[in-house]
Specification:
This protein is mainly β and about 500 residues long. The chain folds into three domains: about 35-110, Sandwich (Immunoglobulin-like), CATH 2.60.40; about 120-190, Sandwich (Immunoglobulin-like), CATH 2.60.40.1080; about 195-494, 7 Propeller (Methylamine Dehydrogenase, Chain H), CATH 2.130.10. About 5% of the residues lie in helices and about 60% in strands. It has one helix and 47 strands. The strands form 13 sheets. It has a four-stranded antiparallel β-sheet with strand order 1-3-7-6, with no helix packed on it. The protein has a four-stranded antiparallel β-sheet with strand order 5-4-8-9, with no helix packed on it. A hairpin with a 2-residue loop joins strand 29 (about 290-295) and strand 30 (about 300-305). The longest helix is centred in the first third of the chain and has 24 residues, at about 1-25. About 40% of the residues are buried. Keywords: Signal. This is BIG2 domain-containing protein. Pfam families: Big_2, TIG. InterPro entries: Big_2, Ig-like_fold, Ig_E-set, Invasin/intimin_cell_adhesion, IPT_dom.
């Protein structure tokens, strides 16, 4: 009996010890994470944020950090500090840390800063012809007013809406500014090139103007017509020439004035616009002789010559009340080159011993430059006169030479003409360019300069027809395709 009681007592003691041991071995509960603070309190996407607290997981995988509902990348881990990166898509709100199944949420709010708008333009470069326009579009200004400026308003102007207007050839930097931000676009302004002449329609020659290589037909009758002279004022293009026997002036392709009634042969050879007045010079046949005439605003202003012999008005320049005309008048036997001022002879350019003709004249405010030709030793010699003095014989008389157009740019005098069948450009009396003739007659009969470039136009024989030519410095361009006969007689570049 004692043995039984002893065994029972021993078993109970073992149970009690085992029960005590099982209670001591149970794992202690893991404390929940908590956030003490974080720094910085605001930042953009990509900003590193340090979260201080306790009971964080001791590895990256044991922690999940979110800005609102967007998980952040954890870069540094300890149980008391986490370094994370503000994720893409985060918005202003609380930060949460989840570790070991528990989540701590910050008491303060993290402010997600948006990137400041970046000012930009839809173009960084634009190219315009003179007087064309284009609107630059700005973005990133956040509704703020944009201040627009141009580095060179004489080349390109810009208004308050970003509209860029081309004023003259060259380059200008257009700047848009908002606060401390500025952005630029470079405007390159290319001059318009106007060429006047004619192109056949297969039956008749039809007066035409080419602007930047594109033909603009003029209103004409079914007779032969052509443009002999051009003048451009702003967006308006004036042309002088003839439509059949009628001396004509056109404006922007439409008839402006019929200078004569068509009963007699007549032609307008030169045009000049002074203010609101349009002057033209040419000639009309009267009683068997051509009379040089000047018209103003469509009406005959005055005859330059008396009609006793043939005379031709070729070029005109108006300065205030003074009217200059260049041309030639027969002395009954041969032509003499002359310049008239206010209908009186200003300069006799030739002495009447040899035939001479004047084709083009420029008055630069001080001196009158005139070009033409005179027969010497049996050949026409291209010449330039300054006032009433022969300044230079441009050709040597080995071929027939003609100086047909003159242009003054500062201290430099440019002339276009021919030496035999070859077109030439002279600068201050010396050959600047001799353009190739291709073995066919090629004529340079108009010249203009623009910001250092020298332009000339004319025509060349090609395959039984003539084609209109344009030269820029030493580069040659063919304007018409040669399917119809075409010639040009004047050029404006601006």
């Amino acid at each position: 009996m004692k043995k039984v009681l002893l065994q029972a007592s021993l078993a109970f003691s073992i149970f009690i010890v085992a029960l005590a041991c099982s209670k001591d071995d149970a794992p202690a509960p893991i404390p929940a994470p908590s956030i003490t603070n974080f720094t910085p309190s605001s930042g953009k996407v990509g900003t590193n944020v340090t979260i201080n607290g306790k009971n964080f997981g001791n590895t990256k995988t044991n922690n999940t950090v979110k800005f609102g509902n967007i998980a952040a990348e954890i870069t540094t881990v300890s149980t008391t500090k986490l370094v994370v990166t503000v994720p893409v898509g985060a918005i202003t709100g609380k930060i949460s840390v989840t570790a070991n199944g528990d989540t701590a949420i910050s008491t303060s709010t993290f402010t997600v800063e948006e990137d400041a708008p970046v000012l930009a333009l839809n173009k960084t470069a634009l190219e315009l012809y003179t007087l064309d326009n284009e609107i630059l579009v700005a973005s990133g200004n956040g509704g703020a007013t944009i201040n627009w400026t141009s580095s060179n308003p004489e080349v390109a102007m810009v208004d308050a809406n970003g509209k860029v207007t081309a004023m003259g050839a060259g380059n200008a930097t257009i700047t848009a500014t908002v606060g401390s931000q500025s952005v630029n676009a470079v405007a390159t302004i290319v001059p318009n090139v106007y060429i006047g002449g004619y192109e056949s329609n297969g039956t008749n020659n039809v007066a035409a103007i080419w602007k930047n290589g594109t033909k603009q037909g003029l209103s004409t009758s079914s007779d032969n017509s052509q443009v002999n002279s051009l003048f451009v004022v702003g967006a308006d293009t004036y042309a002088a020439g003839n439509d059949g026997n009628v001396a004509m002036v056109w404006k922007n392709g439409e008839e402006l004035y019929q200078l004569t009634n068509g009963a007699n042969g007549a032609r307008a050879n030169g045009i000049f616009v002074e203010g609101s007045d349009v002057y033209a010079v040419g000639e009309e046949s009267v009683d068997g002789f051509f009379v040089a005439k000047v018209w103003k605003n469509g009406n005959l202003l005055k005859n330059v010559t008396n009609g006793v012999t043939n005379a031709y008005g070729k070029s005109i320049h108006v300065d205030g009340i003074d009217i200059y005309v260049a041309g030639h008048e027969s002395n009954g036997e041969l032509n003499e080159a002359r310049v008239w001022k206010n209908f009186q002879v200003l300069h006799d350019l030739s002495d009447g011993s040899n035939p001479a003709e004047a084709y083009s004249m420029v008055w630069d405010g001080t001196d009158v430059y005139t070009v033409g030709t005179e027969i010497k030793v049996g050949k026409f010699v291209a010449q330039i006169w300054k006032n009433n003095v022969l300044a230079k014989e441009l050709t040597d008389g080995s071929n027939n030479g003609y100086a047909q157009s003159v242009f003054v740019d500062g201290d430099n005098v440019f002339v276009a003409g021919n030496d035999g069948i070859a077109p030439k450009i002279w600068k201050n009396g010396e050959v600047l360019y001799q353009h190739p003739d291709g073995g066919n007659y090629t004529e340079a009969n108009a010249i203009h300069t623009n910001i250092g470039n020298v332009y000339a136009s004319g025509f060349a024989a090609l395959g039984g027809k003539n084609v209109v030519k344009l030269w820029k410095n030493d580069e040659e361009m063919t304007i018409t395709d040669g399917s119809q006969d075409a010639k040009s007689f004047d050029l404006i570049v601006q």
